[in-house]
Specification:
InterPro entries: Pyridox_Oxase, Pyridox_Oxase_CS, Pyridox_Oxase_N, Pyridoxamine_oxidase_dimer_C, Split_barrel_FMN-bd
Protein name: Pyridoxine/pyridoxamine 5'-phosphate oxidase
Largest sheet: 9 strands, antiparallel
Distance between the termini: 34 Å
Bound molecules: flavin mononucleotide
CATH architecture of one domain: Roll
Family: Belongs to the pyridoxamine 5'-phosphate oxidase family.
CATH topology of one domain: Pnp Oxidase, Chain A
Strand content: 25-35%
Catalytic activity: pyridoxine 5'-phosphate + O2 = pyridoxal 5'-phosphate + H2O2; pyridoxamine 5'-phosphate + O2 + H2O = pyridoxal 5'-phosphate + H2O2 + NH4(+)
Number of helices: 5
CATH class of one domain: Mainly Beta
Keywords: Flavoprotein, FMN, Oxidoreductase, Pyridoxine biosynthesis
Length: 235
């Protein structure tokens, strides 16, 4: 049964029949008419990112506009994606923090090429970055680690990220042990297996949804000399 709001009852799914399942094919949004022109763009992709990021955070008030999907591929080219939080950006690149023994970090050790995706759907926008990831320096990592809440600092020690564990109890026990060793107010050392990656962009695409699926796609491409050229892609 199709309802007016695009919600379809599906009896082939093992779900509570009283709970209608939204039909993704019926979800159709019209994107804004206001476009993105070459003449609107900042001189560098990071400058343009700063403008859109400000709008995402302050005008559109998106929930966690710094959440981005990081895609890596291992030495055999097998891809993997996950969400992480952007913690800093400037002309040198986009920084996130993670566990250096995690799957993503192992992928990046074998293959530093990475893609970042900012899915700002409520604004009909996305930003796609491709580039090369390098670890941040220890001083930079330590400075950021110090700004984290005490509990997050302990969490970075307690979790052997991406490894298989026997149970939740094991994780909670590991955290409790650390909390006893480093009570609130006690300085937590920076874990050696934890730190940042800075993604130096090679291309950055700004995607603005437009009417009739005729979207604007403007992509900055890095030149050898550090300059940027902009090209328009067909939607
Ligand atoms: C909104 C959100 C933010 C996240 N931020 C981070 C982050 O900043 N760093 C991180 O290591 N994992 C973060 N995660 C967890 C990752 O998505 C992922 O589960 C973890 O990094 C392990 O990924 P991997 O096994 O592919 O290395 C976040 C998850 C979500 C949903």
């Amino acid at each position: 049964m199709r309802q007016d709001d695009g919600v379809t009852d599906r009896d082939d799914l093992p779900l509570d029949p009283a709970e209608p399942v939204p039909d993704p094919a019926a979800m159709r949004k019209h994107y804004r008419a206001e476009g993105l022109a070459e003449t609107d763009l900042a001189a560098t992709p990071v400058g343009q990112f700063a403008r859109w990021f400000r709008q995402a955070a302050t005008e559109a008030r998106l929930f966690e506009p710094n959440a981005m999907v990081v895609s890596t591929a291992d030495a055999e080219g097998r891809p993997a994606s996950r969400t992480v939080l952007l913690k800093q950006f400037d002309e040198r690149g986009f920084v996130f923090y993670t566990n250096y023994d995690s799957r993503k970090a192992r992928d990046l050790a074998a293959n530093p090429y990475v893609s970042l995706l900012f899915p700002w759907h409520p604004m009909g926008r996305q930003v796609l970055v491709s580039g090369v990831a390098r670890r941040t320096g220890r001083d930079e990592t330590a400075a950021y680690f110090r700004t984290r809440p005490h509990g997050s600092q302990l969490g970075a020690w307690a979790s052997a990220q991406s490894s298989v564990i026997a149970s939740r109890t094991e994780l909670d026990a590991s955290y409790a042990e650390l909390a006893a060793r480093y009570p609130e107010g006690e300085r937590v050392p920076v874990p050696p297996h934890w730190g940042g990656f800075r993604v130096a962009p090679r291309t950055v695409e700004f995607w603005q949804g437009r009417e009739n699926r005729l979207h604007d796609r403007l992509r900055y491409v890095a030149g050898q000399d550090g300059s940027w050229r902009v090209e328009r892609l067909s939607p």
